[in-house]
Specification:
This protein is mostly helical. The chain has helices spanning 3-31, 40-70, 76-95, 108-114, 120-137, 145-162, 166-186, 198-210. The protein has one domain (3-210).
């Protein structure tokens, strides 16, 4: 077992528990649909959280590729921030949907406005933390496109958190989902892709130092 395989287990458990909470919330909502009227906005945010959790696996794999190329070891100064980042996403995933029936709640949107919207706070913090972590761990520049998009995501999430009008809550949840999908397809870490610029720069540096051409494929 490699160092990365061992250290990725706790992060994987945190992310997996977050997914379990969301799926349990969906099951609970469907089973209690006669007592608690369903609404699509909490489900939309649950979908957004599922994407966030799954994407984080790509992030740590992308980071592992970078570390292998530059010969960096996984130490607490690198591992700790990644664990903290995953915990933020887990906290939000655990609050977005109720996992048990609450007697004082008769609509799912009512639960979201009372409790579920709090899940958007750790989600905003996760995207806020992503800016310095992209620079510190992935070697991205301060004004990289990935960092700009994190700011856009924070603004959209904040709109959904602060707004009390359904129309703005709807716009926020849908907009975040569309933006996030576009980013994971074109900008952020994703499977089958060597990230740019961090990994590409690391490959070029490693090639120039060793004098051996390292072949990489980018789209």
């Amino acid at each position: 077992m490699t160092e990365f395989e061992l250290l990725s287990v706790p992060i994987g458990l945190v992310l997996g528990l977050g997914m379990t909470n969301i799926l349990s919330g969906i099951i609970t909502a469907v089973r209690n649909r006669k007592q608690v009227r369903l609404h699509w906005i909490p489900f939309m945010w649950a979908f957004n959280f599922m994407m966030q959790l799954m994407t984080f696996f790509f992030v740590i794999w992308d980071l592992n590729v970078r570390f292998e190329i530059i010969g960096e070891n996984w130490t607490w100064k690198y591992y700790g921030p990644q664990m903290f980042h995953s915990v933020l996403i887990f906290l939000g995933a655990g609050m977005i949907l109720p996992t048990k029936r609450e007697s004082n709640i008769d609509t799912l949107i009512g639960d979201f406005e009372e409790h579920g919207r709090l899940a958007l706070i750790p989600l905003m913090l996760a995207h806020l933390a992503a800016w310095p972590l992209n620079m510190y761990l992935h070697g991205a520049s301060m004004f990289a496109a990935a960092n700009y998009m994190n700011v856009v995501c924070i603004a959209v999430i904040f709109l959904g958190f602060k707004s009390t009008k359904r129309v703005w809550q709807s716009i926020s949840s849908i907009s975040f989902g569309v933006i996030f999908i576009c980013c994971i397809l074109t900008i952020w870490s994703r499977p089958g892709h060597v990230d740019e610029p961090p990994q590409r720069n690391a490959i070029e540096e490693a090639s120039s130092k060793s004098g051996v051409e390292i072949k990489a494929e980018w789209k």
